[in-house]
Design a protein that fits this description.
Bound molecules: 5'-deoxyadenosine, iron/sulfur cluster
Number of domains: 3
Shape: globular
Oligomer: single chain
Helix content: 25-40%
Radius of gyration: 23 Å
Strand content: 15-25%
CATH class of the largest domain: Alpha Beta
Distance between the termini: 34 Å
CATH architecture of the largest domain: Alpha-Beta Horseshoe
Length: about 475
Amino acid sequence: MQAGQTGTTQKAAAPRRKSLHVITWGCQMNVYDSARMADVLAPLGYAPAAGPEDADMVILNTCHIRDKAAEKVFSELGRLRLLKQEREAAGGRMVLAVAGCVAQAEGAEILARAPFVDIVLGPQTYHRLPELVARASRAAGAVIDTDFPAESKFDLLPEQTEPQEVVGFLTIQEGCDRFCSFCVVPYTRGAESSRPAAAIIAEARRMAALGTREVVLLGQNVNAWHGEGPDGATWNLARLLHALADLPGVLRLRYTTSHPRDMDDDLIAAHRDIPALMPFLHLPVQSGSDRILAAMNRRHDADTYRRLIDRLRAARPDLALSTDFIVGHPGETEADFEATLRLAEDIGFALAYSFKYSPRPGTPAASLPVQVPEEDKDRRLQTLQALLRRQQNDFNAACAGRTLPVLFTGLGRHPGQIAGRSPYLQPVHLTGPASLIGTEVPVKIEAAHPNSLSATLPWEYAAA
Ligand code: 5AD
Ligand code: SF4
């Protein structure tokens, strides 16, 4: 899933002596990590700050997956440096930490270019934050921790106790062993590792007890998840989804992001058998050209992907599909790109993300000799995005007039409105009472807008 930069002030519990501001870039796994970092620091007295200006500690939780990530971090650090200097001039202190995948990949460069940074920590070590904060306050220079430690951060995190969002993220798996040619994840997040089922079920149960109604299971390669079940057997993702669907309060389940090679028969059947599993699947294909898929080391071809989608649609006829594409991978010709357009035409995506290939240092594709010129990448991206936008608009327009269950997640943008999500992940808004937030209601979709649907409530809910 893609996300821009979000400046979030994370929740933290008493004692409220110091304040924390976390700036998050990248995927939902980073959003989850940011929340967990705030949980880890809460017992040290870190509470939410209104913004970086008021914070005693600022964490930049960074993403390295595409384009200029490190440059964005350095420019944000430039701004924070001024705040830190002002604070110090006034006799105060601001702890500055860089976390996440840029920290993992470019720790040494951060310390060299931004020596005012106090802490650099990789995605696997945020459970050590209290110790790093203590060491930073003693040390003259910065402290750095970008190990892949033997202990799991998940075992060492405090449990959530505060009210949870209606849609809650739960990281079940991290890292990846697939080594796609273009991707930095196997290097920044390390080898594939799955959390045990019992820990995941306990966390989901807690989230549901604290208000979460839709649980989104996260992992870089989430359908590679396999873990020890409470019965001692090895479970796959399908088995885990069955167990989570049985938890009280869990109305909806989703999982993201998956690899086509890890969609096994049980998981396809789960889409047929588990009503709580939403009929929407994000399944990146990256390209429609067999030549490029091979160069990408994706280990599937375009027709295997098409057949997989046929099987999923046979299991769950109303399944809507989302995907990721990269245009301009090294060696991509016009004919390869046309194969990508054909694949998109054949499948018909409800939603899709598409990117220009950007070389990531240290990945195999970055050193391939035939890089595609920037102007070809630009043109291909525009052509593909026009097609994908049309498909998304068609999908949304086809929802007008239908009745869809919507899970309300919060207030809408305008007074008197509430907003939520359809099963197909579309934002839906309507005029209705706030008392419906946290509930799922069948609503009549009236119209499709560029990025959302508007709807009306059935009369029996209007005065709820
Ligand atoms: N260049 C462009 N896009 C990339 N992605 C991953 N690495 C790169 C890269 N080097 C895209 C893929 C992936 C999504 C999360 O980001 O499409 O599925
Ligand atoms: Fe990266 Fe996904 Fe490929 Fe793993 S499967 S290497 S996370 S693109």
